[in-house]
Every structure is written in C-alpha cells, then in structure tokens.
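Thought: the user wants the 3D structure for the chain below. I'll pass the sequence to the structure tool as-is, report back what it returns, then summarize two notable features.
Action: structure_tool
Action Input:
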Amino acid sequence: MTTQTPSRRVSARLAAIHESATLAVDAKAKALKAAGRPIIGFGAGEPNFPTPEFVVAAAVAAAQDPKNHKYSPAKGLPELRRAIADKVFADSGVTVDPNNVLVTNGGKQAVFQSFAALLDDGDEVILPAPYWTTYPEAIRLCGGVPVEVFCGSDHDYKIRVEQLDAALTPRTKVLLMCSPSNPTGSVYSREEIAAIGHWALDHGVWVITDEIYEHLTYGVEMAHILSAVPELADQTLVVNGVAKTYAMTGWRVGWMYGPADVIKAATNMQSHTTSNVANVSQRAAIAALTGPQNVVEEMRQAFDRRRHTIISMLREIDGVELPEPHGAFYVYPNVEKLLGREIRGRVAHNTSELAEIILEEAEVAVVPGEAFGGSGFLRLSYALSDEDLVEGITRLQKLFA
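Observation:
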C-alpha cells in the first residue's frame, strides 16, 4: 500500500502571503539599534506616547476583578459596544445599534473579518493605491481579487469617480476606503466622500471604510461616509479602534459595525477563532472612550507640530516632492527624481533599493513605496520624538546634498 505524499508543506494560500513590510522595517531598525547602531526609525505607525494614565489605571482595576478572568461574549462587552455606539454618534451623527457592533482583536482583525464576511472566491475589491500593506493580503486570504487603482501625488493620492468607473466589472463586490490615509496622510473632503458614496450606492457596491485615524486631522474636517450618504448604511462596514487615537497599539482593541446579518456572520467567525477580546483590554478601551478626551487633543497637537517640521525639512531636499498631508501621522513624498542619482557611490533604481541605501548610509529606516503598491515613493511616520525626527531628516538632507 502506498501513501500519497502531500505536494507542499505550507498551504498555497498562506505561502502566497507576504510579511508586513512596515513591521519588517521596524523590526530590522530595532535589531540594528539593539546591536549598537544609532538607527532612527520612521517605519512604524505607532504613537511614541504612553497610554494615558487613567486608561492604565482602569486596566489595573479590571485585572484585579475576578469577573474579568472569565470568558465574555465573543461580540464584546455590552458596556464597550454601547460606548462605541455613543462615540460614533458624538463624532459623526450616525446612529449605530450596539448589537451591530463587534469588538475585535485590533483593527486588523476587523479588516480581515469584514472581507471574510463579504467575499466569495473571485469577488473583486477595488483597492485605491497607495494602500496599507494588510489590505491586499487580507483580500486574497478571503478568496477575493484586489483590483489596484493608483492615485498619484498629482491628485493628492485620492481616488476619483472616473477611476472607479474604469475599474468596475461584473465581479466588483467591494470598495475599500481609508481616510485619513495610511500611508499617504491624505484626507477626503465631505464632497469627495459623498461623490464616492453615491457612486457605490448607484452601482450596488459594498464599502469597507477604515476610520482608525479619524481624530488625527489637521486643518480639515473628518468626513464620515455614512454621515455624508446615510442611505449607504445597508451596504457599508466601518472599522476602527483605539490604537492610534489613544496610543493603545499594544492593547489590541478594534471594532467593526454595519448591517446586522453581516455582523452576525463575522461574530460567528470570531467565536471560532479568537473568541472575546481580553477583558482587561476591553475595560481599558471603555475608559479611553468615556474618560477625559483632552489627552487626544494634546497628542493631536504634538503630531501637527511634527507634521509641519517634517514637511518643511523634506521639501528642502532637492528631488523630493511632497503634497501636504492633512491626516494620520505619515508623509508620503514622491522621490522619483532621486532614483538613478549617484548617492555616495551607489545608485538606486527603485525605492526598495533607495530605502536600503538610506538605512546603510544614513542609519535611517523608511518604508519603500513598493510596500504600498508602487515604486517612486517613501513612507515616513512622524510618530516619534521631535528630537529624533529632526535628527533623522537632517541625516537625509546630508545624504542627498
């Protein structure tokens, strides 16, 4: 009797998934720093502030309460889902039933479960590029097909309705939106969001909108698609979380909300994967959402100060073109004019090679545009100290002088 040997050890689906480029750059920078090199990292999208003290205090108290030592509903603590619904109404005027809120293990799980709940094999997702690195991988893991639509720096990296028309096919199921944007920092106006929302409504296309940077805007208003186009509610999923607004990246609390049937399906999936989010983290999130919000404004002002600094310093480099970002904590300069130029005896033909030169010659870690859907760009996060920011960009100025 012969036994058939499997053709591969790792499944084709997982073998096709790439490591997160942003996390990889951050890990490499930290490893080099641990080895004694004075690396300054602009790679991670992570606030350098500690979690607010009152949030930490709530978590300590929660850890000491035995009721938080047990399983809780997979959908999330009722108190947290109510706090999220109240927050949504306060921020956008959109009414959400707490029963249609699902608390997830960070925003990434919300993104993945949104695609899992909507996509069948071969369904297409219109994916504006530049995009966050996780989006196309999550789409493929769920059997979908990402249809990348590039939005250049000449249009502030924002998709237009005519591009959506060109990308639409009979297989189009979902449009992914992210505003304020990771990686570009671009923010869609209410008029732009409304036009896109009405396009999706007219064509019966679902919208997944990632609003995790909603409180980090500078000089512009945050536009919520369900506020601009309320009638889109039955075909929209919103994902969000506490990570960026409250400096809680490590606490792993996100959420998604939308139509009851889709949230029920995603909840069923979560009940078989991770079950409930850690109760201590959920209690901390309740404190963040319901406690004093002045800490949010203090962090936003610090990011805005750093934004002005990094924009002005990068624009001093010959060959760097940078549309002004109005949200999140990223800049996304166009550096195509630096490609092919000799830099300390070396030449970069794409931004992956340019990022390597920057790391090795200037000891500065940045993420190349290839990670976000196209060469010719770099992403730099300004969620680091003012001192490190100035030192890091000064090194780039010297490198490209």
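Final Answer: Structure generated. The domain at 12-50+295-399 is CATH 3.90.1150.10 (Aspartate Aminotransferase, domain 1). The longest strand covers residues 172-178.
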